[in-house]
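Hey, I'm writing a tutorial for new members on how sequence and structure tokens pair up, and I'd like a real worked example in the thread rather than a made-up one. If someone can provide the structure for the chain below, I'll link this post from the tutorial.
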Amino acid sequence: MRLKKIVRLPAEYFEGLHIGNVLFPSLYQFENGLRILLNSYLTTCYGANWWDVSLKPRLQAVFDYADNQQKKLNAMPWIGASSVVAVVPIHLVTLGHLEEVVKAYKSDCIPQLFPTMEFFLGHMEVIKRVRNMYSHMFPCITKGDCQVAKNEIRVLSLHINSKLP
């Protein structure tokens, strides 16, 4: 597929673009699968209002971040509008925030969702690092970086898939 260049970047910058496009579909599935799993599981543990009743006092900063994102969404409702998927607060937080949720609910999530906290955090560290390289347009991202992240995503996805319907 030929890429239309809209900015005259040096040629070496375009390699990162092609490499990152290989990673994004896996990252998208993983991050949204983790959101669905956590929301579903914590709803079972704490009820339908778990975000307001339980998360808010535990992780005020994450709650506030999602609230601010919701305000931005409300200011431009035509961006991100979907009749297929209802946006819930957990959709509005970052991958790092999702990690914080697992840490805050360790007694609920370990070993029910992931074998140990170290297992979860170790895999997440690699995924987040490569994800941030791609998202922040780091020009030195390599095919190897993306492959390592995809491998880590596969490992955690096995656990996510074993808990999703």
